[in-house]
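User: Modeling request: complex.
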Amino acid sequence: MTAATVPARSPGTVTRVVQTVREHAELIVTPVLVVVGGILLRLNYLRSDRTFADERALSWERNLKPQLEQHISLALWSTLFVILIAVPLGIFLTRARFRRLSGLVVGFATSGQAVPAFGLLVLAFAWLDSGAWTAIWALVFFTILPVLRNTMVGLEQVDPSIIEAGRGMGLTTGQVLRRIELPLAVPVILAGVRTALVINVGMAALAYLIGGGGLGQTISAGIQLQRDLVVVTGAGLTALVALAVDWIAALVERALRPRGL
Amino acid sequence: MTDENAPTYAPDDAPEPMIRLEGVGKTYPGSSVPAVERLDLDIPKGEILVLVGPSGCGKSTTLRLINRMIEPSEGRILFDGEDVTTVNADQLRRRIGYVIQQVGLFPHQTIAENVATVPRLLGWDKARIRDRVDELLELTGLDPGIYRDRYPKELSGGQAQRVGVARALGADPEVLLMDEPFGAIDPITRDRLQNEFLRLQSEIRKTIVFVTHDIDEAIKMGDRIAILGERSVIRQFDTPERILAYPVDEFVSDFIGSGSTLKGLNFERVRDIEWNTTFPVATEGDDVAEARRRLAASPEVWMLVLDREGRPSRWVNETMLDAPGATLGSVGPQVRAKVLPNATLHDALEELLLSNAGQAVVIDEKGRYQGIVDVDRLADVLKRMRADAKRHYDQLATAAADEAVAST
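Assistant: Request completed. Predicted assembly structure:
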C-alpha cells in the first residue's frame, strides 16, 4: 500500500503547524488587522475628496505624528504609574497583617472606575489645572483597579500548600514572596496590566478635553468641522493604536510568563 | 530519683531523644480550649516515630509545633539538647526536613531547582548543589538524566512525592517531619513508596516524625507509635508490637480496631519461633507399611512425604495409605503451603489456612524440609506476645507505684 510509504511525519507536521497557529492565533490575527486597517484608512483618505481643512487636520508632520506620540506616551506613562502604585499596594494588602484594610482600599479603587471618565478628567482639571500630566493622573486613578485587583487575586490564588512547603523549608516571608508568590502571580498581574494599558489607550482619546493632547484632537476637529474623513481617520488611528499596544502587551505577557506553569 | 510528677517522655527502652518537647502546648487566641494540651514527648534518635490519631486530634498541629510553623504558646523545644524555642524559626527549619501531603512543589521551578531549595538557602556552591541533587534523585528512585530539568506538572502524584522527599533531604537534615506524606497517593503506589521509604530510612537513619490517621500505615512505618487522643493527649506510646498486643485502654483498642492481634503476627518471623520437627515424615519410595505404622503411632492425622532431595512433595493420611497399590509419592495432595524462615508469621498463617493439611511447611533456600508451623504454634506466639506486653506494663505500673511510695 502506498499509505505505508507516505512519510509518517507529514500529517504530524501539518497537525503541528495547525496547532501552533491555533495557539498563537491571537498573536497572528492582531498584526494582520492593524496592517489591513492601516491600509484601509490610507485608501479611504486617498479616495476621498479632500478640502484644505481636511489636509491640514490630517497632516502627518503637523498633526497626526505628534498626536500619535502624545497619545502613546499618555498611555504608557499612566500605565507605568499604575504598575508602580498598584502592584506594591496589592502585595501590601495581601499580607496577613494588612489584609483587613483590603476592603477599604479596593472600594476606593473601584470608585475610580465607577466615576465616568469624562467626569474624572474634569475633576482632575479642576483640581490640577490643564495639561498632559493632569490627564495622566486621571488615567492612573481610573485604571488602578484592574492592576490592583489582579495583583491581589494573583497572589491569593497561589496554592497555600506551596507557600507552606516553602516556609517549612526555611524560606523567610520575603523569600517566599519574591521566589514563589510573585513569579506564580505574574501571569495574572500581567493580564491586569494589559487591561489597564488598553483602557488607557482608549481613555487618552479624551485627554484633549483638558489640553492633554492625543488623537482625540483630530477626532474633535473632525466633529467640529463636520468632516467625516477626519473623524474616521482619527477614530480609526486610535483603534489601531489600541490594537497594536495590546498586541505588544500580549507578547510581553508570554515572554514573562514563568516556564512550568 | 525522679519525683512522682516527672513527666514520662518516651518508653524507657527508647534510644536517646533527638528532639524533646517539654510541656509544649498551643492555645489559639480567643479559644479557651487548647488545640494541643501540654505535651511531653521524646523523639528517639534515628527512628521513625508515628503520631497517629483520629481526624482533628491535633496531630498535624503537634508536628507543626516542632518546626515552629505554629508557635507554641507554652513549653520548650529541645533540639539535640539545645533549646530552640526562641531561636530564629527560619534558620531552625533549614535544619529540619518537611514533607506534606500536598507535596507543594514549586511549579515554576525545575525538579533540580526544587530539590536544591535548602542547599541554595545555605549558600552551597553550584557544583556541590548539582552533585547533591543528582544523588538525592537517585536515592529516591528518579533518574536524574530524565527528571532533573522537568517541571512538576509533568510528574505523577507518586513521582511528585518522591521529589518532595528528595527536597526535604536537600541539605541532609538530621530530622524529617512528614505530614501524611503518602495520604493522597493511590493504594498501590502508596504501598511501593512506603516500602522504598523504609529501605531508604534503613540507609540514612534519620530521626523522623510521621503523622498519619491510618493505623495500618502507622504499624507499617513506625519504629514507635504514639496514639493521640483529643487535644493531642498521648494515650499510648510504644512499639507497634506492644501496642497491638496490649492496648492500654478502650480508646486505643477502638482505634487500632479489630484484627489487631492478627496484625501483630507481622512482627515475628518464622525463624524466631520453634518449629515442630517431630512431625511424621517419610521419603518417596519408602516402605508403605512401615510409614503407615509410624503415622498410626503419632498423634498427627497427616504425614509429610519428601522427595529424594528432601523437598516436601505430598500429604498423605491413613486412608490414602490403606488404598490398594498406594506408594509413597503417588498418592495424596501436593504440598503447597511452604514458607521460608524469614517469612512473617502472618505469611505463615495465610499459607497454612490454604493448606489441605492445615500446616505450613518451613523450607530452606534450596527447598528442603525444615519443620512444620501450625495454628497452635501461632496461637502460642500471640499469647506470649500479649503476656510479654502485659508484663512490661505491669512492671511500669509497679515501678511507678514504688516511686510513689518512696517519695512519700
